[in-house]
């Protein structure tokens, strides 16, 4: 018996029908009909392909000559609107035979003589081929030298100087009033020099401590110590600069 032959079985005697293929489940939105209706309302059918509805030709009626040609509409009488009618021509007749004694030739000569001649635009030729450029925007003329405001103090500097002068006067008046009331006193030259030398001495000590820091700042405490020294040195530098710039320094008595 051949091994490749199908084995006989009672289940193979009658062919069994194949099961119908399962339909794949697809997502279908509930709003599909609304969206499709809205989309169709914005479309215009047969927009570039002719009329949307055309009656098909009837086979009983044969094609006649000139039946496909376009016919002009029926002619209708045209009525001119009342507002479009122009005013009638005036009936008065102009006076004839009037002549003027004006000499137009002599008048034109006088007008030409009285006209101011145009000044030629200054140009400069800077190449051997004759290329021309305008002289004024070329930068070769000292135009800034002949300005009306050349050599004068600008207005914004005058205004700034007046504001500074006014502020200084108000400050001096305030200081004098405080001195008169006895709440402020002025440092003498010795006291000012003593305070200034003390500030410089403190700055030198902080600078020595700052220069003694390690090159590698690898801990948080070292970083904080460095920032504290920098802040103190910056504050002392501002105080030293203030004492050196101002000769008269006022402090409260208390």
TrEMBL record:
Domain spans labelled Enkurin: 159-251
Domain of life: Eukaryota
Record has Cytoplasm as a keyword: yes
GO CC terms: acrosomal vesicle; axonemal microtubule
Keywords: Cell projection, Cytoplasm, Cytoskeleton
First-listed, main subcellular location of the protein, grouped into a coarse class: other
Cell location: Cell projection, Cilium; Cytoplasm, Cytoskeleton
Gene Ontology molecular function, alphabetical: calmodulin binding
Annotated region (Disordered), positions in chain: 1-58
Alphabetized InterPro entries for the sequence: Enkurin_dom, Enkurin_domain-protein
Protein's recorded name: Enkurin domain-containing protein
Native source organism of the sequence: Chiloscyllium punctatum (Brownbanded bambooshark)
């Amino acid at each position: 018996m051949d091994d490749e032959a199908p084995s006989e079985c009672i289940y193979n005697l009658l062919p069994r029908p194949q099961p119908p293929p399962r339909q794949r489940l697809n997502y279908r939105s509930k709003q599909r009909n609304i969206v499709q209706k809205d989309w169709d309302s914005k479309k215009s059918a047969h927009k570039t392909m002719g009329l949307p509805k055309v009656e098909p030709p009837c086979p009983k009626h044969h094609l006649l000559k000139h039946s496909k040609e376009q016919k002009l509409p029926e002619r209708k009488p045209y009525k001119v609107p009342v507002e479009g009618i122009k005013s009638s021509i005036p009936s008065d007749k102009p006076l004839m035979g009037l002549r003027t004694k004006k000499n137009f030739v002599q008048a034109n000569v006088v007008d030409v003589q009285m006209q101011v001649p145009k000044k030629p635009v200054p140009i400069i030729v800077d190449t051997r081929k004759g290329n021309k450029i305008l002289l004024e925007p070329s930068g070769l003329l000292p135009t800034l030298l002949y300005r009306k405001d050349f050599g004068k103090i600008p207005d914004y500097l005058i205004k700034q100087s007046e504001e500074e002068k006014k502020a200084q006067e108000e400050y001096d008046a305030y200081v004098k009033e405080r001195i008169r009331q006895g709440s402020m006193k002025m440092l003498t030259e010795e006291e000012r020099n003593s305070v200034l030398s003390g500030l410089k001495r403190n700055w030198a000590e902080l600078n020595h401590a700052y220069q003694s820091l390690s090159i590698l700042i690898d801990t948080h405490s070292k970083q904080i110590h460095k920032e504290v020294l920098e802040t103190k040195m910056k504050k002392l530098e501002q105080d030293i600069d203030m004492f050196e710039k101002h000769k008269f320094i006022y402090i409260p008595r208390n």
